[in-house]
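Re-run requested by the PI after the first attempt was lost when the workstation crashed. Everything re-entered from the original request form. Ligand of interest: magnesium ion.
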Amino acid sequence: MECVNPLRTGLAVAEAQRVVLALARQLGSESVAGADALGRVLAEPVLSTRTLPPADNSAMDGYALRFADLAGATRAAPVVLRVAFEVAAGARLERAVAPGQAARIFTGAPLPPGADTVVKQEDTEREGALVRVRVAPSPGENVRLAGEDVRAGELVLDSGTELGPAALGLLAALGRTVVAVRQRPRVAIVAGGDELVEPDGAVSDGKIVSSNSYTLAAQCRRAGAEPIYLGIARDTPEALEERLRAGSGADLIVSSGGVSVGEHDYVRPALEKLGCTLLFWGVQMKPGYPVVFGRFGETGPLVFGLPGNPVSAMVTFEQFVRPVLRKMAGHRAWFRPRVHATLAHDFDKSEGRTHFVRVFLEPKPDAPGEFLARSTGSQGSGILRSMALADGLLVIPAAQTRLRAGERGLVQVLDEGFFAAREPGV
Ligand code: AMP
Ligand code: MG
């Protein structure tokens, strides 16, 4: 009986994304110190074993007292209380505030028993052992209640949360010095082509630098993955097989080049020879049609054979590899943020493929929160410079043939840098 070849060709972008994401599995977890966990994804729900703040405490420097003692205090008719003792931040409570008394208190100091309210220093006048209070506070004013931030037993951070500075502070406050985070995907990167040299190599005789080795490794890092660069493979089946085999211990293999229909395009046959099941070749997109996707068995790495053209490699990485890496790394959201933008000029295209147009995004001066999209320059799939300038990729759906200036389109945001402001926002 013939083995059924599952290889599909000419898929729509969304369909190809479904195929790759269906095979991507979340990686295991590892323990890291809180100090090293910035940007990592929690692999466990964090339940609090503590109450934060641990006790009622003062939000101000002032006087802790009984609200009931201050009814009707005004500037003209202040209430006078006896200052019985003092509580500093970090102090142990030993005494209670009795009726007619106040305790001198400082920010963060625990509220003594008997007191329920703090009047800030600026609303008082001190005279020896007495304090004159010139305002009637509201009950509980300037008191931070025990547990108003976190209660013991509460779910504080859920599994799948990307740890930022505030979350790391919270973990520290809860006494969590070690947390379980998702492993970072390890990505083997292979560049294929006889014309390729490393950046310090000679670029005579038709040689070019393998810039994909850099763009793809950087894209991996930006996606929270760990690139493992396996170097340049010559355009022979043996050389490619050898490099691809070297990547078999990684979570994912990403090669670039050698996936078209030329005589020297050996990635597909090399993958098949190594026992890789190919799922698709060719996605209806521009740039980036000839992308290959496969898997090594049930447990081996997934493999992407990206096209060699520098922008095709980057754009196919964005659409397929990055979401897979985000899923493997435990993120809940796998796709780039996107904004609607008004087009600054017409975009023409032919029907049939989804186009990804490199654009600048500019905030519209007259409409806060809205953006203008403008081409960054030549859109050839080898023009890396217009990719380097791009804030985002304008997505023009396959069925569409033209978008006119003034119409709105969806832009995948590649670099949040364009949100950065030159003016203070206060
Ligand atoms: P290929 O997909 O191998 O036919 O390559 C398509 C184009 O991309 C050719 O112009 C290659 O020279 C170029 N290319 C292939 N691999 C790389 C790479 N690693 N870095 C930069 N350009 C590349
Ligand atoms: Mg080639």
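Saved to the shared folder this time. The two ends are 72 Å apart (CA to CA).
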